[in-house]
Amino acid sequence: HATSKIKNKKILITAGGTKERIDPVRYITNDSSGKMGYALAKAAALAGAQVYLISTNASRVVPHGVKAQYVQSALEMQQAVKKIFATVDVVIMAAAVSDYRPEKKWSKKIKKGTANDLTDLKLVKNPDILASLGEEKQHQYLVGFAAETNDLETYANQKLTRKHADMIIANDVSKQELGFNSDFNAVTVLTHSSKPIRLPVAAKSQLATKIIDLIAQHIS
Ligand code: PMT
């Protein structure tokens, strides 16, 4: 059975939305709950993998046997990922990494109507963690997600190529009842070697098992 190929493999999974601090009480984030990443961590651990979870959400229950580390920002996530990247066999970037962060982090709460008024908040681009892993990768099998509201497969295919990923799990996030923060999802799995595989609406736990099985089929 293909899933046995996952046994004892080291899998790094990221989960949740990053928090980009503005000041001690404010940040920029997104609706990712971490559910998809945690479901994948559980499925991979059940298949016998050694799972390292890098999560932005410390309130979720860590699946049995999974090692978890918590981070907030994209920069912290990138640092944590890079630290163990060389030692892992598979990386699954399920986290919703903020593409932008405030140019400056204020140490005191910003006051309305002062010179630092937030109406002038300036953002800078965060690094693309998946793309940078794509450039550095050696033996690692790289899995990214693509969250799209339109032209799902076109954009997801572009991410597969541009980020040098081996697999992209594309989810349509235009529907409120699926994707971000839902217990359900529907995904299309894209690789370089096979036709798109469409996995219709199901619980994230069920999709996670199927995704881990597909990864197992592709790794040597
Ligand atoms: O957490 P849940 O509530 O369960 O919701 C799950 C989910 C919808 C968040 C998840 O299934 C998902 O789609 N995660 C990726 C969200 C996202 O950031 O998509 P993207 O299309 O912007 O990014 C593409 C890929 O590049 C992703 O693997 C992402 O982790 C990665 N990325 C993006 C930006 C960035 N600066 N660095 C990255 O590594």
Notes on the structure:
This protein has one domain: Rossmann fold. The protein contains 5 helices and 12 strands. The longest helix is centred in the C-terminal third of the chain and has 15 residues. Helix 1 crosses helix 5. Strands 5-4-1-6-9-10-11-12 form an 8-stranded mixed sheet, with helices on both faces. Strands 2-3 form a two-stranded antiparallel ribbon. With 220 residues, the chain is of the alpha/beta class. Helices cover 26% and strands 28% of the residues. The protein binds ligand PMT. Ligand PMT binds next to helix 1, helix 3 and strand 9. The site of ligand PMT has 26 residues, from helix 1, helix 3 and strand 9.
Termini separation: 13 Å
The CATH superfamily is identified as CoaB-like
* Residue fraction in strands: 25-35%
Please give the CATH class: Alpha Beta
Question: What kind of sheet is the major sheet?
Answer: 8 strands, mixed
How is the largest sheet built, in terms of strand order?
5-4-1-6-9-10-11-12
Query: Could you say which small molecules are bound to this protein?
Result: ligand PMT
Judged by helices, strands and strand pairing, the structural class is: alpha/beta
Rg, please? 18 Å
Structural domains: how many: 1
Number of helices: 5
Number of strand segments: 12
Helix content range? 25-40%
Give helix and strand order, one letter per element, not per position.
Answer: EEEHEEHEEEHEHEEEH
Contiguous runs where pLDDT drops below 50 for at least 5 residues:
none
- CATH architecture term: 3-Layer(aba) Sandwich
CATH fold group: Rossmann fold
Shape: globular
Mean pLDDT: 95
